[in-house]
Amino acid sequence: MLLLFSDAFRSFTFPYIYLYIILPFFNYKIIPSRKKTFKLLNDHLAGRDSSKPLEVLEIGIGGGANLEYFPENCNLTVVDKNKFFEPYFKQNAKRYPHINYKRTIIQCAENMTEIEDNSFEVVVTSYFQCSCDDPEAVVKEIIRVLKPGGKYICMEHVGFPENTIGLYLQKLAYPIWYLYSNGCTPQRDLAKVIKRAGFSEVICKN
Predict the structure, then answer these.
(1) pLDDT, tens digit, for every residue of 40-60?
(2) Which of 202, 39, 17, 49 shows the shortest CA–CA distance to 121?
(3) What pTM value is reported for the model?
(4) Can you give the residue ranges of the Methyltransferase type domain (predicted)?
(5) Highest mean pLDDT (candidates 10-14, 24-28, 38-42, 139-143)
(6) Is residue 159 a contact partner of residue 187, using CB atoms and an 8 Å limit?
């Protein structure tokens, strides 16, 4: 009943559920995706002066599962609306000295008022856009805070194609899945949202 009626209780319990139940169950698929995604980023950063810190923003960082894949010499800023992830993230961040952790901003990504325009060379989201309230607003904010020529990398599970049994099952499971996964909406077509957002180039890979 608490899960059903209390957003605060769901926010409090979700970090443990996600990090110790959901993530281990899906890691066999997620870890290869992380490696592929960050290889793509590093390929696009080839030739950068690594003596200068890379300004990185990760939105919805959770427990910091991406940290081991970050490029050398990063200044990392974190935005997450769920403050209960922060102790898990800070403990994990100690293992990665190549990252200079700057601060965590507890705020919704749809309105990142504490971040100035053109602040970051890289923005990262992973398995986050499925659970934000307004993906279009989030992407608009990402474009705003990226420096000219900046990179946005996004890993997501998305909806099956239209008129498929997979999409039907996602929609069928949605009410219960949403409740127990802290707002995840599995049937979203996030590739479409990103493609029409105004980026100069979009690369989508399955």
Answers:
(1) 999 999 888 888 999 999 999
(2) 49
(3) 0.89
(4) 57-154
(5) 139-143
(6) yes
